[in-house]
Write the structure tokens for this entry.
Amino acid sequence: MSTTLISGGTVVTAEGASVMDVLIDGERIVALLAPGSVPVTADATIDATGKYVIPGGVDVHTHMELPFGGTNASDTFETGTIAAAWGGTTTIVDFAVQRTGERVQDGLDAWHAKADGNCAIDYGFHMILGGIDDDSLKAMDSLVAHEGITSFKLFMAYPGVFYSDDGQILRAMQQAAANGATIMMHAENGTAIDVLVAQALARGESDPVNHGITRPVAMEEEATFRAIKLAEVAGAPLYIVHMSARQAVERVAEARNAGANVFGETCPQYLYLNLEDHLGAPGFEGAKYVCSTPLRSKHEHHQKDLWRFLRTNDLQVVSTDHCPFCFKEQKELGVGNFSAIPNGIGSVEHRMDLLFQGVVDGELSLSRWVETCSTTPARMFGLYPRKGTLVPGADADVVIYDPNATTTIGVETHHMNLDYSAYEGTTVQGGVDTVLSRGTVIKRGNEFIGRAGHGRYLRRDLSGYLL
Ligand code: URP
Ligand code: ZN
Ligand code: ZN
């Protein structure tokens, strides 16, 4: 096995930052050393002087090739994981799908078939349950026990697609309470939203901005509260995905303060993009920003509060909810009818950079950046300490990050299979210099030197946050 020494960089973990050398043997980290403390010879040395050395990013919410809204998310496991690697993410947890009427195991097998041999970085799966019945409840136990799938996403939104009613949700939560899994919730009141959508369309209000107007904050807050109460009754751990509304996070914070195993995630789009300027852009341009939960009004202080919630650990994780649909032919399915625009934004490549802006702007400490983007997601979903930190024994998934670089985001330079960028022309401070996945350099400077097929499937343990 060959050894690599990353020397002279500032190692940043959730615990703090200090100048250290990182010694890698084969696929694992074997030592962190004070520079010069012991003589070290390695087969290769990477000079990280003046740069941060951080655990690779862990994005626990992606949708590669998701069939949705009459089309498929445009990144394959190959294109999406290569783009992730470019942006300093070395692990994804994607959502396998069980559709109504389908066996859970068949949905999972289909997802393995898409990913197997195609990923450039390591990957795991959550399971979307689109049809909760006796068989799928039993299958939850089997996935936890045998497949390394310890989290299940349910939807209070999208009636007729992935939607579960409260009784189904309660049953799945009871099953999770017994088998130790975490329930991930898309918390929006989908049946009420469908009424608002139909009414808006009947009034002739068909532009993309109506996607946001018909999904008001109250519908996210109400569903979040209902999910928390159902989880309380069932005794199940609950993780609310893609949170955008301040009021909804306040419900999570209350539950946490009362000692409940309730967690929350937000995404870069909710920290940077808004209803008026983006979803409300002229013509059909706003379609680029259609996602659910929707972008919120810039006049309601959501973004400032989401940053605060990240600081105060009322929100624990930043994922991307990477679900890219090209503008041409995919988003365009909704010309003249906002409700037919496929929901999703692609940003798997830019999460680490966008969140580093929080450090630059004084919203997050360096350690909290690493914690929310890498350490906590790994621990939340049973991958820690193999992923999400730099300690002897951990996988050598390491990012050398240059705080003095600048990165301009745009369709000409990104690597996602997406014909637009939600952040077109945005220049951010900082940039990913070098990326190692299990000890192999897969990205160096302006070169990707990894390969599809390097990434391995990760069987996950139960959440590391539960007693
Ligand atoms: O708009 C979104 N979020 N699309 C992906 C599917 C989901 O609900 O996560
Ligand atoms: Zn969702
Ligand atoms: Zn999603």
Notes: The chain has a mean pLDDT of 97. The domain at 56-380 is CATH 3.20.20.140 (TIM Barrel).
